[in-house]
Fold each of these.
Amino acid sequence: MKAAEIRSKFLKFFESKGHQIVASSPVVPGDDPTLLFTNAGMNQFKDVFLGFDKRPYSRATTAQKCIRAGGKHNDLENVGYTARHHTFFEMLGNFSFGDYFKQDAIRYAWELLTQHFMLPPEKLWVTVYAEDDEAYDIWHKQVGVPAERIVRIGDNKGARYASDNFWMMGDTGPCGPCTEIFYDHGPDVAGGPPGSPDEDGDRYIEIWNNVFMQFNRDEAGVMHKLPKPSVDTGMGLERVTAVLQGVHSNYEIDLFVNLLAAARKAVDGSGAAGYDADSPSLKVIADHIRACSFTVCDGVIPGNEGRGYVLRRICRRAIRHGYKLGARTPFFHKLVAALVQEMGEAYPELRQNEARITEVLKQEEERFFQTIANGMEILESALATTGKAGKTELDGETAFKLHDTYGFPLDLTADVCRERGVTVDAAGFETAMNRQREQARAAGKFKMAQGLEYTGSATTFHGYEVLLHETATVTAVYVD
Ligand code: ATP
Ligand code: MG
Ligand code: MG
Ligand code: MG
């Protein structure tokens, strides 16, 4: 079954259960300053959960374009190194706005997976929020999942469970306990079951999260009851496709096999040769072209602040990995065509904007290749000086200046140094970075005057009142 068919089966299944099929919202949330990018299917329904907005339906189903490369859910650094994380992915979801609750949500999920997608029940594991006896009983007594495959997250993990089986959209907003469904990819893959010490491996992969939306968390962390208990679920299309196509990694599904081939071709065409075709770098490139293209498509351009800055980071991470493989001329923008080929039918906006997306990415890429060339010159001369002085360590100040003034990434510096048997003075780099951070903190106040301030790892709306109180800490944003 191809990804497109799985997407449509999901939507049709929930339509048959009285759900309205609703189109994906853009990856750039229209009117939610607490959110950098759309990170879940429920985002477009946030106000419906909160009771501020009414819809003509109480059940909905979507395939939502999501980006998790900043803010509360940030998977950027995982990409390339796990079988299951993307920066851009599609989240399949069903929603109940004060209509059904735990029992129907769990039953629908089980029915779809075992009777329509025909997954063997013994391959499925579930987790429930530690104190949620109701969900536990539904799984065990009604659905019949044996106790040894139901894990109460919390019993053995202390503080971790609150974040694991209690889902939050961000630091504020709708949230609630959840129950998650995992697929066991078998003993050939390393990793333990959910709740075990080695659960972070990729053997047991979480495919679907069912959230029982019950609270609205405010800025002070206080939980307010929602007007009505609701349901919000999310299943990663790429993850369930991997399961249904009988492969382990998301990067082995039809769509990614084609994108990886296109990435290889584009990198080769730009002069690279003799690299490992299974390298994380190719996965990074194939993944990032989706996030970058969809982001540009929905109106973002690379820049130094907010969304534009995150887009620039993703773009540059992809280019850096291409450079690692040996690419010496722009290659990344050439992948837009391959992406349109793969996803243009499901997302016609991609096809309509193909020329513009390609051009925006090409310009960013040309700029960054120039940055790399300039940085290489400075680095070469610093390395020559280091060598003449008989040292085998590049000083942290130079590494920081390359990063901060010339936009030359630290990991490229480290790579080049490694090739020459030279190390980088990490402590010296940190010192210089901290000094810069202090200066940026002061500069942050200026940016806040515009009302919107994105911090590096979390996105927070400070608003004008912060300027008056001056108590909020502002974290500066860095290109890494
Ligand atoms: P994980 O623990 O694997 O990082 P998660 O618990 O952060 O996943 P949820 O917030 O529960 O994920 O999102 C719902 C579903 O969306 C997940 O069950 C998974 O199928 C999918 N998903 C989440 N993050 C990603 C990602 N970065 N790439 C691809 N699919 C994802
Ligand atoms: Mg996650
Ligand atoms: Mg999880
Ligand atoms: Mg989850």
Amino acid sequence: MTETTYPPSADFKAKAHIDADTYASMYKASVDDPDAFWADHAKRIDWIKPFTKVKDVNFKFGEVSIKWFEDGTLNVAANCVDRHLATRADQTAIIWEPDDPKDDALHITYRDLHEQVGRMANVLKSLGIKRGDRVVIYLPMIPEAAYAMLACARIGAIHSIVFAGFSPDALGARVNGCDAKLVITADTAPRGGRKTKLKDNVNQALLHDTDDVKCLVVRRTGDQVAWRRDLDFWWHEEAEKVSADCPPEEMNAEDPLFILYTSGSTGQPKGVVHSSGGYLVFAAMTQQYTFDYHDGDIFWCTADVGWVTGHSYIIYGPLANGATTLMFEGVPTYPDAGRFWAVCEKHRVNQFYTAPTALRALMGQGNSFVEGYDLSSLKLLGTVGEPINPEAWNWYNDVVGQGRCPIVDTWWQTETGGHLITPLPGATATKPGSATLPFFGVQPVVLETESGKEITETEASGVLAIKDSWPGQMRTVWGDHDRFQATYFQQYKGYYFSGDGCRRDADGYYWITGRVDDVINVSGHRMGTAEVESALVAHAKVAEAAVVGYPHDIKGQGIYAYVTLMTGEDPTEELRKELSDWVRHEIGPIAKPDLIQWAPGLPKTRSGKIMRRILRKIAENEFDALGDTSTLADPSVVDQLIENRMNKG
Ligand code: WT7
């Protein structure tokens, strides 16, 4: 097999922070003596009281405990804002590009950012928010989202961002889940030329038992909104009542910085808890090295702050490094499929980081949308969220990067806080489709799926686990440490289990093959099949549902739902649409099934467990690969499902 590899160009290598030799020696140091390595690298942030202890970690199931820099104190907002004032007060911290290209972009300097964050922090205090309280942020991609995050960090409140595309129910569940005292939202949010009624959604979410939750509302569009008397406050009015001066709270390294809900294979989404000190060190270090960020560069990560990518690589990593970070309110296809490249040209973007699903969608629109723009400022391209197919990789490389820009395919997770497996662009020869090699301090292992035995040969295939901790690792599931242990440390003892399958090639490169659990990856967003199922069965006409992923050209994976109706209900086209809209309404647009197949029965074992393996194969049209069906309670349901699949029923 011939495999194309792309070594770093001599030019790139010469200017890079890390070349191949440095990578090798630093990596070795990071695993030989993690304490010394991280004690040194933790100096990249400012500590109020320096730590004396670096790492205190136990991965043993039943005793899992993860602490980094545990006796150090710091303030994350002071690290992301105040400490840059001496040297970069007039430098742009955030470039904000609005949804509509006809509206003006904003250039927010570090001085401006300091003022806004201080004001927001004082507003939070005036609304009764104290250190340790939870604040839910349900905002579009506007600068106030950054102010809100940093304001929480400044006073030691814990933020939990809920992606603005989530439904009122999903929002309500998260507000309750972390017992938030305040929701920060906007009136309405323009995106791709359409508007989402965020404040209305908040009103619906807070209707029930949470009606003492306050709401701070940013006026984005000026649209009319319904007000909850005594509980709702306009940000622009409150901001005028307070000063911009708010001294940063001295926080412990292990105090939670934020909670971010993410889907798992079972049950409701879990609140991933990240720390202050370790998280910030890791986010900042990966932002600098993975993207080879240099002072003065313009960095653009296209994610939404509602996902971890936005936390680490729009806000915390770049701002801790004193970078200029671009925040984009819109979508890649509005007003047309050239928007990303128009923004790159307009703001002279140097590093551009996006998801394979966006690239596939844009690639399908043709090269003419790229070719009209001057992309000469681009130095590096990155991807995240799902495996990138070589076709999309090549298009990114040839058409967007014009063969000039290294591509970093970064593998990580909400749980990991930052990149774990990724090329370093001045050091690593890349191979299209491989996330390549571990970041400093990260020790990936490939385990045999069944036995859990570590495969020591270089060439290996199995499940991906990590041997030891890194500073950016999540610390617990909010309010449920047992679930944390059960999810990540129980099945494969002594390791952090990622939930992904992978292959390691003869060069030691890692190729992520996708989730091995009941989680599906739709357009780089994680969706639990159980969540979609419980939304479906909540519909009065649905008796039972089973959801699996199937290959989808643009989204990577699509959502395929098998639905058994209540006796007497007719399987009509209208009902199919009704159920799709229902899920959209219950969870949000990202959870909407792509295909619904009527299932008179589901393949179950005699003990009643649904055999998803079979459902996956049927969804993939691989009827010959169903495997053993003899243990089914009623093997004939399989024939019926296949027949329905072929008749598109
Ligand atoms: C899952 C994590 C981390 C930010 C975005 C998603 C998949 C992520 C890659 C990649 C192949 C990838 C994995 C992982 N994934 N990056 N470069 N190559 N797969 O965060 O929602 O926590 O999802 O996304 O399956 O487990 P997330």
Amino acid sequence: EKLVVVGQGYVGLPLAMRGVDAGFDVVGIDVDEWRVKRLNAGESYVEDIVDDQVKAALRWGRYMASTDYAAAKDFDICLITVPTPLLEGAPDLRHIASAGHSIAPLIKRGSTVVLESTTYPGTTEEYLLPILEKGSGLRAPEGFFLGYSPERIDPGNSRWRLENTPKVVSGIDEYSLKKIETFYRQIVRDVVPVSSPQVAELCKLLENTFRHVNIALVNELSIFAQQLGIDVWEAIDAASTKPFGFMRFTPGPGVGGHCLPIDPSYLSWAVKRGLGHNFRFVELANDINRGMPEHVIRRLAMALNRRAKPIKGSRLVLLGLAYKKNAGDCRESPSIEVARSLSKLGARVRAADPYVKGFLAPPNIELIEASRQEFEQSDAVVILTDHDCFDYELAEQVSPFIFDTRNRCRGPNVERI
Ligand code: SAJ
């Protein structure tokens, strides 16, 4: 059977490779020429897929990548895994529309389409279905099957991978659900059928909104605890000893990435559009998390002030620019926002992040290697993204002052968020 995966990013490429493992002939469609070239040369740019997997799939003649949808002709199953960003705070479904319009003419009777992109409840049936029916001249589910299955890929997580992470699946009718369930059972260990695409769409938004709201909770708690003179990190460690009913989150300089800062706004947008209500939890969490970079600046300014050092002209060494540790992704990175603001305030900002390759540092920010000399000659070291590769002991020993937003350092010269 022929499987087409539209979008060969950190979600689509693992799906394509699992499809090859399961015996499908797979075509990976991507609009990015550079990606298609790399893939057809047997190279992976996705953290969780190694070159050899792509090379083997090519060698067996069971995989090819293309920018041309003609390569998708006669597909049996098509998975759509394209980005769903925000545009001025509202869902931007242009990539879903583009994929839908392009794949629709290639739908043959009895084929199956599954949307995996994170989106608001209703998208599959209200938005994608009409595009596919119009473009194919067929009706669903009589002519083709359609459903939704949210992605739960966590790049770099070696414990939970595509094949062993439970996969929620749905269909617009029971036959679509059966077809889609049967497909996923060939590539993942646990399949969790739900009664409608809207349930599956909402489930995904719930998962990430839950995380976003709880991070906002500990972020706001960290602000109050510090003002009360209470060590919030110790309190969180103590609370984490509760073996049931508590889930550990930690404060930080804000929430980055392309999931957490985005997905909750899909939910609040859907509630406002549908009911005219504000989803206050989500909006409050957005406000708190978006306010953390500025909170970091305020705390740092007060700490420097206590050392008779204005921010202007101070020599700052920042550790970490990526949005989360041990990764190089800078999308929506709060660390970069902090770096930019400090530079605007006239600080001399030098940033170290070995994961961020070939990065066009924001203006007036110098990329450096973290070293004894850099620490010694700084007025302050600011820990923003706590990559495990940084030498925190050295920083503690030789830095005049450390502002630590990730609880990696101890000592009389250390202040934590
Ligand atoms: N963060 C905190 N405190 C925390 C946890 C995270 O400040 O306690 C910050 C991180 O520094 C980062 C941001 O939040 O800036 C997002 O971190 P994340 O660990 O949630 O990483 P993501 O963005 O890669 O989230 C992904 C999501 N996966 C999918 O959407 C499929 C999310 O659902 C996962 O729960 C998360 O990975 C995970 O568990 O690692």
